[in-house]
Amino acid sequence: MGETMVMLTPVEAVPLDQATELHCGVGGAESNVAMGLAAMGLDSHWVGRVGKDGFGIRILDELRRHGVGVTGVEVDPALPTGLYVKVPAQESDPDGGSSVLYYRQGSAASAMGPGTLANPAVAKLLEHAALIHLSGITAALSAECRELTEAILTAPRQGRIISFDVNWRPALCPGQDRSVLRRLANLADVVLVGKDEAEHAFGTTDEAELRQLLPAPSVLVIKNEAISAIALDRDGTRAEVPALSVDVLEPVGAGDSFAAGYLSGMLFGLDQKASLRRGHVAAACTLTVHGDRGPLPEARELSAILDSTDAQWAAIHVSGGQFTTRDRSVAP
Predict the structure, then answer these.
(1) What residues form DSSP beta bridges with 232?
(2) Which of 15, 112, 157, 245 is the most buried (most CB within 10 A)?
(3) pLDDT band for position 326 (50/70/90)?
(4) Mean pLDDT, the chain, as a whole number?
(5) What is the CA radius of gyration of the chain?
(6) How far is CA 230 from the centre of its chain?
(7) Lowest-pLDDT range, 15-24, 199-208, 283-292, 310-319?
(8) Exposed/middle/buried for 211, CB within 10 Å: 0-12, 13-18, 19+?
(9) 233 is catalytic
(10) What is the dihedral of CA 196, 166, 202, 240, to 10 degrees?
(11) d(C-alpha 318, C-alpha 324), whole Å
(12) Do the Cβ atoms of 108 and 56 come closer than 8 Å?
C-alpha cells in the first residue's frame, strides 16, 4: 500500500536542462515490491490512489501487465496522479549519482487516509493478506496518510505479517520529527532499513543501538549497501549474507527489489540466510538496468545461485543482468 507515480527521465544521459526528450515510466516503492513479489510467483496486489488521467491509466495498465492486482485502487476524479523526474548520473560527475525531483504534493495518493480502509475492495484484500507491506514514504505524504499507516499497524494481526521499509526520503521529511518514523517502524513485524538511511532516520548506524531503538519487530533487516545484509531476530539471533559483486548501472529501485526478494523468501518459509540471498539476487538484477526493476534469472539459474556454497556465492559477479563466475554462467 502506498503511492505509485509516473516517472519521467531524460532519454539521453544528459542534465535535465539539456534534455529534449523524456521517457515516461512508472515507479513507486510499494508497487515495485508488489511487482517483484508477483515476478516470484506470489499473488500480489497494490492498494493506492491515482488521478483520473492518462498517468493514472498508465500506472494501472503497467501493474496489470506485471501480474499485480489493482482492485483496491481508487481513482480520484479531481486530484492528479503524482509524478517524479529521475535525473541520471553524469559521466562528467561519477560521484554525483542520480537524483530525483518529486511533484507529488496534493496528489491523489496523498488523500489516502483511515477512510481508505472502509473501501470494501481494500478491506477484503487486507483481510485475506498473508503479508501487508508499508513504507515510511506513505506516512510522510500527509497527516491523513500517516493516520492510515498507523491504523494498519495497530490493527489486530489475525495471522497477517506487516513489513515496513523505512525508505527515508529527505525531500519528503524536512524538519519532521524522527520519533514518528521510529514509532511506526516499531509497530511492524518486519522492518527493513538501509544502513545509509538509518543515521538520518534513527540517529545511529550501530546494529545494537538500532535493535534497542526497535525492540518490538520480530526481525530487523539492515541493508549495508554493497557490503552485506544483516537480519537481527528479536531473540538475538543474527544472520549476515555478503552482497554480490555487481557492476552498478543505476541504484534506484534496488532497495525495493531487495525487499521483494527477502519477503518472498520469508513467505516461502525459508530461513534468514536464504531469504537474504534472495534479496541480494533481486537487488543485483535491478542495479544492472536503467529501470526500477530488473528481470530475475531463469528458474534453473536462480536455484543454482541460491543453492551455491558460501565460496561459490563469493565468486559470483553480476553485470548486465548476467550472473557469472570464472567467466561462466552460474547455472550448471
Answers:
(1) 220, 238
(2) 112
(3) low
(4) 90
(5) 19
(6) 17
(7) 283-292
(8) middle
(9) no
(10) -60
(11) 6
(12) yes
Bridge partners for 245 per DSSP: 317
List 76, 189, 256, 292, catalytic entry: 256
Whether residue 2 is predicted with pLDDT greater than 70 in this model: the reply is: yes
The three three-digit cell numbers of residue 128, written as one number: 485475506
Question: Is the Cβ–Cβ distance between 33 and 259 less than 8 Å?
Answer: yes
Higher pLDDT, 226 or 56: 56
* 117 vs 328, more confident: 117
Please report how the helices 143-154 and 178-185 are oriented relative to each other, as an axis angle in degrees rounded to 10: 30
Q: Per-residue pLDDT for 37 more than 80?
A: yes
Q: Which residue has the cell 543515521?
A: 199
The CA-atom distances, in angstroms, between 329 and each of 224, 285, 297, 305, 324 are 26, 15, 11, 10, 4
* Mean pLDDT in residue range 91-103: 68
